[in-house]
Design brief:
Elements: H1 2-20, H2 27-45, E1 59-70, E2 79-88, E3 93-94, E4 97-105, E5 108-113
Antiparallel strand pairs: 1-2, 2-3, 2-4, 4-5
Length: 115
């Protein structure tokens, strides 16, 4: 009986430890965070005189996660992720690869800062 209790306790401890550790963002979560960030930037551009007409010229059509690594700096928590974007412009689709920091917020993952 003690062996079963010990196994149960070990299993619960392992599950608790896994729940505490935050998993890195998925590709879908990264794409949603980038889409939100670009929408916010476009909204801000409409408020700046002279930039209103340029606000809709760029559109993020997708993002591919290349990899993520947890940050070591406590003051800049989250994950540093390498992401390749599909950005539609009036004449072509660009595929820049960027290193961005993502943080977990109450509403999901968010781009912490842009380069």
């Amino acid at each position: 009986m003690k062996k079963q209790q010990a196994c149960l306790l070990a299993g619960l401890s392992l599950l608790t430890a896994c729940a505490i550790l935050e998993a890195e963002p998925s590709e879908r979560e990264l794409e949603a965070a980038l889409t939100t960030k670009f929408r916010d930037v476009r909204a801000l551009a409409t408020l700046v005189p002279g930039l209103e007409s340029f606000a809709g010229l760029l559109d993020v059509q997708g993002a591919r996660k290349q990899g993520c690594q947890a940050t070591d700096d406590v003051r800049r928590s989250g994950y540093l992720c390498t992401v390749t974007l599909d950005v539609k412009t009036p004449f072509t689709v660009l595929h820049p690869t960027l290193d961005l920091r993502f943080i977990k917020t109450a509403s999901g993952w968010a781009v912490a800062d842009l380069p």
